[in-house]
Amino acid sequence: MTAQLISIKSRSNNIDYNKLPQHIAIIMDGNGRWAKQQGLPRIEGHRQGAKTLKKILRTCKNWGIKTLTVYAFSTENWGRPLTEVNFLMNLFERLLRKQLQEMQQEGVCIKFLGDLSPLPLSLQQAIRHSMAMTQNNQGINFNVAINYGGRDEIVKACRNIAEKVARQELSTEIINADLISQHLYTTNNPDPDLLIRTSGEMRLSNFLLWQMAYTEIYVTDTFWPDFDTKQLEKAIVNYQKRDRRFGTIK
Length: 250
Hints:
The chain is an alpha/beta fold. Helix content is about 45%, strand content about 15%. Helix 5 (about 120-135) links the parallel strand 3 and strand 4. Helix 2 packs across helix 3 (about 40-65), helix 3 packs parallel to helix 4 (about 80-105) and helix 4 packs parallel to helix 5 (about 120-135). The longest helix is centred in the middle third of the chain and has 24 residues, at about 80-105.
């Protein structure tokens, strides 16, 4: 079965495919609470959450979403119990090595956003390998924010620009919003059209602070492991009812 046939057969009659968000960002929240609700250890919530992510990525690709960015591990998440942090690092690496061939076949171009230097060396190697192997794929751009913090990203961009000014590679007169955007982890990506946050929390949690100036926000009480295609459809339909004015009046 070809990718085109899969795409057609998986489509929803409720979505206007001429008005799709081109970039969806997701804060995948509620793994631990889902596990507790099931009477399971927290790590089982993360394992189930990884399965959910695979399904949502494939659905976005089949529906024609061009970019999906997910919040996998924040700079603040190092404060979690060591056993949970170690499990997540191992999970990220296992998934990369296991799913790389499938991502290649489905045309996924994967990129990682964040400061990767504190990650385990074997995970850093898996990340670099996966990005190199998929860099020319055009099915969907898949950004994974790991050891990522929005404020930290902006500070690094400002420091980088300041260093270029000091070396006289840039003048202060040309510093504007576009230049700052070019120095962020998300350079060459459009800003998210739609942010989905699961588990009912009503905050950005330091995620893509610069990029989400005019992003439409959709919050669901559903825990991430229970988030499915129907939930994604509901979020997109809700988005398509919004009147995006970007601060102007039509």
